[in-house]
Write a structure and sequence with these properties.
Elements: E1 25-29, E2 38-45, E3 49-57, E4 62-65, E5 68-70, E6 73-80, E7 87-95, E8 98-106
Antiparallel strand pairs: 1-2, 2-6, 3-4, 3-5, 3-7, 7-8
Length: 107
């Protein structure tokens, strides 16, 4: 609506920045996490599929390999960390060529 009260309906146009780095993991918590517990993960997926989740300890060794089912759009999931010892971990997420790495502290 203009200042003079005139209204005009226009179409909404979607803008996608081709040079922007896609935001894959939108939310990760709680961090630090207390044992036993679950790490809640919220992520975006372009299409249905599977997301690879690998958890590495501070020594670089694979501590957990946890695939997650993904559906097109915003997804909510959780990772059980009951078997992880207290310490710092690196969590690698990968799906359809998109990779993201996050750090996690387990108490």
């Amino acid at each position: 609506m203009d200042r003079d009260g005139k209204e005009k309906i226009t179409t909404v146009k979607m803008f996608k920045n081709p040079t922007a780095i896609p935001k894959f993991i939108t939310s990760l918590g709680a961090n630090p996490i207390k044992r036993p517990g679950q790490l809640m993960v919220q992520f975006n997926a372009e299409k249905n599929g599977s997301m690879a989740v690998k958890v590495f300890g501070a020594n670089g060794k694979l501590a957990a390999n946890l695939p997650m089912t993904a559906f097109a759009g915003l997804n909510n999931g959780h990772i059980h960390i009951c078997d992880l010892s207290p310490g710092t971990y690196t969590v690698h997420f990968q799906m359809d060529g998109i990779k993201e790495v996050k750090r996690l502290a387990v108490q």
